[in-house]
Design goal:
Layout lengths: L14 H5 L6 H19 L4 H5 L1 H10 L6 E4 L6 H9 L34 H14 L7 E6 L6 H10 L7 E7 L10 H11 L1 H19 L4 H15 L6 H4 L3 E7 L3 H12 L5 E6 L7 H5 L10 E2 L4 E2 L12 H15 L3 E5 L3 H4 L2 H6 L4 E3 L4 H13 L3 E7 H4 L3 H9 L6 E5 L16 H6 L4 E4 L4 H12 L1 H6 L2 E5 L23 E4 L4 E5 L3 H12 L5 E5 L2 E3 L3 H10 L2 E9 L4 H11 L5 E7 L9 H8 L3 H10 L8
Parallel strand pairs: 1-2, 2-3, 3-5, 4-5, 8-9, 8-10, 10-11, 11-13, 12-13, 15-16, 15-18, 18-19
Antiparallel strand pairs: 6-7, 12-17, 14-16
Helix pairs in contact: 2-4, 4-12, 6-7, 9-10, 14-21, 17-19, 23-27
Bound molecules: thiamine diphosphate, 1-deoxy-D-xylulose-5-phosphate and magnesium ion.
The site of thiamine diphosphate (TPP) has 21 residues, from helix 3.
């Protein structure tokens, strides 16, 4: 499809081109940029509503700042499509998130305009402060450092840690722009959200704010210095608001706003003023997620990352899937937790800001007093779960595998050392796909299996996920005090008929799926389905035994003795990093027990694997069915049946 670029946008490739235009042309630039994002995302996919919401902010920032000399950091980065388009990637934008194409997030190696690589939220304030302090150290006083952070991202501890420090560095040239649209992926939650609404709607506050901005305007005309203006502003604000202290001001961050984030003229004027205001400061900008595309404004969660859509009708196109009626693993989780909770009153569910992504929203709807969204706060989610577990609750704490990285200390210190049987459901384990390396759940097998008091399991299909969830909440498991990690991937499973009655699985018990004579393949989790396909191709050339390990910890030792006593060639397959994963665990077992089979491990190698469709990444790393077949053929097994 031919996508046109608009009269002004077609000549803008870099911010220097934007700066050649008159201020009154910025309206048109915004209009054209917004349309370009709509056109592109409708046919190529990706995140959507967040970028539409910051079109004006993006244009204003690149018009006013001197990027890339000035440092501009987009928190999370899912809203940075406009930034990418204005900074040299317009003509490549059709490759966004596609295998071999540009990343969906700012990335240092992709562009000098991407000051900091992002993907996980709430890093921008600390990173920008670090840059500001670095510039101070280097004597680069002219440089601006700007962090654009959403109201959702602001709920994380890391953002608070950054603000706490920033407020004590009086000479740091740091501007935090709070992009407040009252949304995370789902509606934003928590007391901070209420506070932001309060300062946005408070009549007293806004009256004072208007007076202050007027004052600022008048004083500029008289050529007063920014420092003088700020002093007046602060006096006016503090005098009038004694009874209503401002949270950010209390942290010594000068607070400005709230202002309309879709008023490009005002944004340009304010950002120009901000450049001359010294020290750490925060500008509160109000925006609408999905701005300018009606369906996205109306259902902001659905349009966070809608997939392909018809831009005229707003109809979201359905994905073609191999197993048309197989459910997503996340939905099996969502329905199964409700089913279990109906029988077990001790069950509760926790998600840090991913109700839709994890499908915990099914339980939040069915049992609102037993399922909780705690905001983007993975560390808190884990320790909260630990606290609940001390009171005898069976807590399913559902966190995407890669976001769990942030809560590692809490898993060790607050859960495992304290013998608390929290149930960690790690969704998006293995390759996340188009989100790329920031989101791949590559490391959890390795980082979970080394913790005492932690069981690590992965279901090969939907039925297995249900049975593992059933095991985790059982009285006998909960009484043991061990935590459990259940890891499963993004996307659909393989069992259209998945709602089977629960059956018992014993902790640490794997299963033999198929006998064989030439070699054994040991799989962990859904990679077992690729092994099944590979074996269909390999037989009768090779006689292959297949074991589904189910547990990376504890290992099924009886099963492994059987394997190593019988087979000289063993292949392990996992959707996780090879360093320290289940293949490593099996090697440890082999050496510890004096076996000496030839073991080939398949999984994610020790390098960053970029973005692409999951199947492309499995193929790249050689653990799709084809890769497994090739590995078997390369083993040169003597005396096999062929
Ligand atoms: C540590 C971490 N947890 C969760 C996510 C998933 N996530 C991506 S965007 C988002 C919502 C962010 O909300 P906000 O910062 O307000 O940005 P908006 O989408 O509203 O522009 C969430 C929860 C993430 N990227 N990083
Ligand atoms: C930016 C971000 O972190 C989320 O939007 C993430 O892309 C969601 O991933 P899923 O699409 O797998 O839920
Ligand atoms: Mg938001």
């Amino acid at each position: 499809m031919l996508i046109t670029q608009g009269d002004l946008l077609k000549d803008i490739n870099l911010p220097e081109d934007l700066k050649k235009l008159r201020p009154d042309q910025m309206h048109q630039v915004c209009q054209e940029l917004r349309q370009y994002i709509i056109d592109m995302v409708s046919v190529h996919g990706g995140h959507f509503g967040a970028s539409l919401g910051v079109v004006e902010l993006t244009v204003a920032l690149h018009y006013v700042l001197n990027t890339p000399d000035d440092q501009l950091i987009w928190d999370v980065g899912h809203q940075a499509y406009g930034h990418k388009i204005l900074t040299g990637r317009k003509d490549k934008f059709y490759t966004n998130r596609i295998y071999g194409g540009i990343s969906g997030f700012p990335k240092r190696k992709e562009s000098e305009y991407d000051s900091f690589g992002v993907g996980h939220s709430s890093t921008s304030i600390s990173a920008a402060l670090g840059m500001a302090m670095g510039s101070l150290h280097n004597g680069e006083k002219h440089r601006q450092h700007v962090a654009v952070i959403g109201d959702g991202a602001l709920t994380a501890g890391l953002a608070f840690e950054g603000m706490n420090h920033a407020g004590s560095i009086n000479d740091a040239n740091l501007l935090i722009i709070l992009n407040d649209n009252c949304m995370a992926i789902d509606p934003n939650v928590g007391a901070l959200k209420e506070y932001l609404t309060d300062i946005t709607t408070s009549k007293t506050y806004n009256k004072v704010k208007d007076e202050v901005w007027n004052l600022l305007g008048k004083m500029s005309k008289f050529g007063k210095s920014a420092r003088d203006i700020v002093a007046k502003v602060e006096n006016a604000m503090k005098g009038a608001l004694l009874s209503q202290s401002n949270f950010f001001e209390a942290l010594n961050l000068r607070y400005f706003g709230p202002i309309d984030g879709h008023d490009i003229d005002h944004l340009v004027a304010v950002l120009n003023d901000m450049k001359n205001i010294p020290g750490p400061k925060i500008l509160h900008v109000l925006t609408v997620k999905g701005k300018g595309y009606a369906p996205a404004e109306l259902d902001q969660t659905k349009w966070h990352a809608p997939g392909l859509f018809d831009k005229v009708t707003g109809e979201i196109k359905k994905k073609i899937i191999t197993h048309p009626t197989a459910p997503k693993y996340q939905d099996v989780f969502g329905h199964t937790i409700v089913e279990l909770a109906e029988k077990n009153p001790k069950i509760v569910g926790i998600t840090p800001a991913m109700p839709s992504g994890s499908s915990l929203n099914i339980m939040m709807k069915a049992m609102p007093d037993r399922a909780f969204d705690v905001g983007i706060a993975e560390q808190h989610a884990v320790t909260l779960s630990a606290g609940m577990a001390t009171r005898g609750l069976a807590v399913y704490c559902n966190i995407y595998s890669s976001f769990m990285q942030r809560a590692y200390d809490q898993v060790i210190h607050d859960v495992c050392i304290q013998n608390l049987p929290v149930i960690f459901c790690l969704d998006r384990a293995g390759f996340a796909g188009a989100d790329g390396p920031t989101h791949h759940g590559a490391y959890d097998i390795a980082f979970m299996r080394c913790i005492p008091n932690m069981v690590v399991a992965s279901p090969m299909n939907e039925e297995e996920l249900r049975n593992l969830m059933f095991l985790a909440q059982s009285d006998s498991f909960q009484a043991g005090g061990e935590a459990i990690t259940l890891r499963y991937p993004r996307g659909e499973g393989v069992m259209p008929d998945w709602r089977k009655p629960f059956s018992e699985i014993k902790v640490g018990e794997g299963r033999k799926l198929k006998e064989g004579e030439d070699l054994a393949i040991l799989s962990f989790g859904p990679t077992g389905n690729e092994v099944i396909k590979a074996i269909e191709t390999l037989e009768p050339e090779f006689s292959v035994a297949h074991y589904d390990m189910r547990f990376a910890k504890p290992l099924d030792e009886a099963l492994l003795h059987e394997v190593f006593e019988k087979f000289t060639h063993v292949i392990t397959v996992e959707d996780g990093c090879l360093q320290g994963g289940i293949g490593s665990a099996i090697l440890e077992f082999m050496v510890d027990h004096g076996y000496s089979s030839k073991v080939k491990r398949l999984g994610i190698p020790d390098r960053l694997v970029e973005h692409g469709e999951q199947y492309q990444l499995y193929a790249e790393c050689g653990y799709d069915a084809k890769g497994i077949v090739e590995t078997v053929r390369s083993l040169q097994i003597q005396g096999h049946l062929a």
